[in-house]
Amino acid sequence: MQKKYRKPFIAGNWKMNMKPSEVKPFMAKLAEVMPRKRECEVAICVPYPLLPAAIAATKKIGVRVGAQNMSQFERGAHTGEVSLEMLLDLGVKYVILGHSERRADNGETDYLVNAKAKAALASGICPIICVGESEEEHTRGLTMERIAYQVKAALWGMEASEVRKVVIAYEPIWAIGTGKTATAEQAQEVCSRIRKMIRGLYDGRIARAVRIQYGGSMNEKNAKELLSMPDIDGGLIGGASLKPESFAAIIAATAQD
User: Fold this and answer.
1) Are 225 and 11 in contact (CB under 8 A)?
2) 179's torsion region: left (phi>0), alpha (psi -120 to 50) or beta?
3) Which class for 125: exposed (0-12), middle (13-18), buried (19 or more C-beta within 10 A)?
4) C-beta of residue 8 within 8 angstroms of C-beta of residue 40
5) Disulfide: which of 112, 185, 207, 214 matches 198 by Cβ 3.0-4.6 Å?
6) Is 171 tagged catalytic?
7) With contact defined as beta carbons under 8 Å apart, do 14 and 242 qualify?
8) Active-site residue identified among 99, 108, 133, 138
9) If pLDDT is split at 50, 70 and 90, which confidence band does 241 have?
10) How far apart are CA 249 and CA 179, in angstroms?
């Protein structure tokens, strides 16, 4: 990893798991097993009801907390939505946007992801923007066509100063929760091409600054190899982030020899 330019970033995505009462014990266990010296930034993104407990439990262990979604609206008659103002008031630092599960289950479009990302940046919350191809697109050799569209749509209308604050998570849909994982070389190829795309849209300085994570069944066994790739700056971790020992091992894997 190009640590000269980018600090590695490991973010857990708990999805729709855990209860508020389980957060404190989890964080206590994580504090026990997490490496004392860390070379990365760490965050855990949790469902809305878990946010207060997660923020309280992570204050002393150097872990930041993120949400898994947000509304593009500031406030008003939007029943069931959660605003950036609410998240900021709690102390949320990150928000996952455009995850394939939200795109599939809730019909989120690239245009909506763009609107949410720009709103998040304006408020001071860092968006983790997910991009990824389906198994059919992967099989037919359409990976980069799909990724290019998603990246360009997500960054549309952003100033260079905003883009450098964005985190992009490459999550091949065929590898999310399936046990399948892109090889380190496959993941590196896509992440490298994402960076080249950003260089073309902006410039080399911005491209070097943007952190690109890999997500898609990253675990304690394959993390070190994946994280050794020059354009993979961390991971967006699903199932393994629900196990303190596994999550701590991935964090430790950012310390390359």
Assistant:
1) no
2) left
3) buried
4) yes
5) 207
6) yes
7) yes
8) 99
9) very high
10) 18
- Residue 5: the pLDDT is 81
Catalytic site residue from 41, 108, 133, 171: 171
Distance CA 90, CA 70 (A): 13
pLDDT digits (tens, 9 = 90+) for 105-119: 999 999 999 999 999
Burial (CB count within 10 angstroms: exposed 0-12, middle 13-18, buried 19+), residue 193: middle
Q: Is 78 a catalytic residue?
A: no
- Using CA atoms, how far residue 164 sits from 117, 160, 190, 203, in Å, is 13, 6, 19, 11
pLDDT band at 257 (very low <50, low <70, confident <90, very high): low
**In DSSP terms, which residues pair with 9 in a beta bridge?**
41, 234
Q: How far apart are CA 39 and CA 250, in angstroms?
A: 12
Q: Which residues contact 34 (CB under 8 A, 6 or more apart)?
A: 42, 61, 244, 248, 251
